Amino acid sequence: MWMQKEISLKPRSRGFHLITEEIERAIGEPGQIRTGLLSVFIKHTSASLTINENADPTVRADFESFFNRAVPEDEPYYQHVFEGSDDLPAHLKSSILGPSVQIPITDGRLNMGTWQGVYLCEHRNHGGSRNIVVTVHGE
Amino acid sequence: MWMQKEISLKPRSRGFHLITEEIERAIGEPGQIRTGLLSVFIKHTSASLTINENADPTVRADFESFFNRAVPEDEPYYQHVFEGSDDLPAHLKSSILGPSVQIPITDGRLNMGTWQGVYLCEHRNHGGSRNIVVTVHGE
Amino acid sequence: MWMQKEISLKPRSRGFHLITEEIERAIGEPGQIRTGLLSVFIKHTSASLTINENADPTVRADFESFFNRAVPEDEPYYQHVFEGSDDLPAHLKSSILGPSVQIPITDGRLNMGTWQGVYLCEHRNHGGSRNIVVTVHGE
Q1: Would the pLDDT of A135 be above 90?
Q2: What share of chain C has pLDDT > 70, as a percent?
Q3: To probe the interface with A, which of B42, B68, B95 has the most A CB atoms within 10 Å?
Q4: Do B92 and A66 touch (CB under 8 A)?
Q5: What is the pLDDT of residue C16?
Q6: Do A95 and C51 touch (CB under 8 A)?
Q7: What does the alpha-carbon distance between residue B107 and residue A3 come to, in Å, rounded to a whole number?
Q8: Distance CA C44, CA C32 (A)
Q9: Is B62 a residue whose pLDDT tops 70?
Q10: Hey, of C44, C45, C102, which one would you mutate to test binding to chain B, going by the most B CBs within 10 A of its CB?
Q11: Contacts of B5 (CB under 8 A, 6+ apart)
Q12: What's the whole-number average pLDDT of chain A?
């Protein structure tokens, strides 16, 4: 059985944001597929998806601080600069973190750990709405 | 056809560890599914999974050395510090490396390259036992 | 429905290269599977796959420049040095970027964003031909 839905996430500020609930709403009643996999794919090259701690918001703030230092803006050797200082670093961060997550479905529910949540990683200053494709398949 | 199993890995020291055989044992006889995909998902935010060289153990030692330098402990700008110096870096490393791997199944076997193996990346000093969900689907 | 094909990519120079068209040729007529997922897996530990901007080639040039700085060669603490200066950094880069990509299939086509393409990330100076496994499943 396959279910697939493309949704637009509301615009977020630059940084890391929990979107687990929006994904769960997109797929609706979880019980139809008992055993399977959920795949979420972001259709952009300057934002990304990852899974990390869903509780303390300082983790998400520290992610933004760390990645801004690890992938600095305005390096003199960057050639792709015409879309703004935040653009090329956004491309780099999006490939380091990746455009998709895969999560097992067990007994009709997302089988993540207690402290896991899905992050939208918004790497642009004004990224606007982001589109994701949620695919569920299983039996 | 779907097969799914959740297993607990024995506690490992901080560092990078080959777990290919444990995954193969979890899924049992490989021949039932001829063509498909294996997905392995770790249910934690301070450990991760990756695929890399399965032979020379100095590669895994160098991974630990490199990531400790790339994601240092005790940076003055970290806010999430109350769980210990190794905690926030562990969250960052786990998102850089990622919580899951996907491997094709061909002719009833994991179709990895000769030198590829699955690593458990243990980023905490005392991470304890880690739970992974192994999902196989195919025909 | 499952389709799986292993193909050899022609040798590329060290750097980042668009291979979307080679993947599309490998899977042939896209219309057979209307809704599903495409998975691409690289069978090597010193090359990797990612998804990023498919237009301006300076993005790919900047990726090479950035990752060479982020993962330098000849660090004095590296132990795995006998395969050349480019080898251990290649292993590290390949785990940071990852060995696989997953892309949704919608209405019989790869459902990527307008600006997304699949990159072969060749991290060795002379990596030679690289083998990838393309798996499509859906309905």
Answers
A1: yes
A2: 98
A3: B95
A4: yes
A5: 98
A6: yes
A7: 28
A8: 30
A9: yes
A10: C45
A11: B26, B27, B133, B134
A12: 96
Tell me if the pTM is above 0.95.
Answer: yes
**Tokens representing residue C77 in the block:** 């603490």
Residues near A114 by Cβ (< 8 Å), separated by ≥ 6? none
Q: Which of A42, A80, A131 sits opposite C59 (nearest CB)?
A: A80
Whether the complex's predicted ipTM surpasses the cut of 0.95: yes
Q: What was the pLDDT predicted at C76?
A: 98
| Amino acid at residue number B50 | T
C76-111 burial: b if 16+ Cβ within 10 Å, else e: eebebeeeeebbbbbbbbbbbbbbbbbbbbbeeebb
> A12-40 burial string, b = 16+ CB within 10 Å, else e?
bebbbbbbbebbeebbeeeeebbbbbbbb
Q: Which amino acid is at B118?
A: V
pLDDT (0 to 100) of residue C30 = 56
